[in-house]
């Protein structure tokens, strides 16, 4: 593997801007990011949190409003936005009417009869009534997410170059060389960087240029993606307002999502991969979704194919992949963009640590070891969600009496609720996937070994654990202050009141080595129970790196979790001498 940047590396600085200008891109940057969608921007934000500048190259000049493919950020992603200081900003920017931002609702149509409403879906209850998460899920359209992240990235020192595309790239032991071209003028520029990250989507130029193959299935099935305007739905709807409206009717199924006070989109599953859109009566489908006699204006119709494709490598030397460039899965469950956000956080702090001189090359290797298995699991679960959706629809449909669907009266309502319970049992895993969301368990060379047993993993159940590799258990320190808020930008060491001396010994040694380490005393009783070891070290991405006793060797622990066991840098050499 290509050696990391030399210890004490001084990162390049340049003015932050979001620009369409044809001139003046920096000649060299610490990190060059190809693609300024949500994942590339999230990476730019995390780097900026550490004071590391980045340049993002994006061929589009505007954020398209349609089609909207990603529309949900789960609680874990919102915890990342909280870390970046923009969780509230994102929620305030969301365009969906507030009443329609919570719950999963099962119904015959948007103005028809309801089978049932389920608030536990998608962890929308989240921080409202649970101490297990710092944030609840948020229904927010991808263009809005992009704009919020772009503003924050630029604020933290990133340059976003719009209207530029990658032409070619190369690398050696000293860094990467990329040639970029302005799309409208053909102007070309060569940019050097210490590292280059491909966040450039499913057809990633970076992945292809690096010769990285993919495993998995392509073209598994085809789904319709439809957009329309129909403000009358909100005024005529008889169902409980829902963020995700799962519509089941003898004439077909759909998953409908409100975008704003007049706009909607829907995913319609169950088509062959070679579907010809011209053979589909799209207007009839939308009419079924909104309900009889409800006017609408179709604004977009398209077909997208379902893929299970995972890059075989996430790193080649100084080149990395993140987001769709690294992994693709079905959108049923909303895992792909949320996984990309976790990619950005995981890789971002590791690149920053390496550039700032306190992270070793093993730390960069751990990115693939930790994130790729998560992508594989997500792809399997997402495809299973699609299968369950179709199977549940077909199974329950065979028991439905069409005459009862829209009928009045207690008996009809009771039967609809029974069908709703059966439908929810079949599709709940798609909407209530706490294991996938909160229980991502990392295994790598920079995670301390721990022989203690752990609860078997489940896609739908989360059990807080301070075992190394797990997401650090959350707790509220006060009504508005999360344990995560107290954690530093770098590592944090959590300790019980009687172990302050040992914790301060870790902090002193970290200071001598040059590793940022914030001490946090566990005075909250719930936090003290969840962190049952005297000392626990938590990483910048809020995953546990190590836990142990007060007599543990600080230097050995710190070198292990920063990837420097076999690559002692200048700070560690001075501290050990």
UniProtKB/TrEMBL annotation:
Q: This protein's superkingdom?
A: Bacteria
Region spans: Disordered: 1-23
FAD-binding domain span:
29-376
Q: Name one GO molecular function term.
A: FAD binding
Q: Name one Pfam family in it.
A: FAD_binding_3
Which keywords does the record carry?
FAD, Flavoprotein, Monooxygenase, Oxidoreductase
Q: Which residues form a coiled coil?
A: none
Q: Where is the composition biased (Basic and acidic residues)?
A: 13-23
Q: What is its EC number?
A: 1.14.13.20
InterPro entries per the UniProt record, alphabetical: FAD-bd (IPR002938), FAD/NAD-bd_sf (IPR036188), RIFMO-like (IPR050641)
Cofactor requirement? FAD
Identify the NCBIfam families for this entry. Answer: PRK06126.1
Q: What is this protein called?
A: 2,4-dichlorophenol 6-monooxygenase
Its organism's taxonomic lineage begins at: Bacteria, Bacillati, Actinomycetota, Actinomycetes, Mycobacteriales
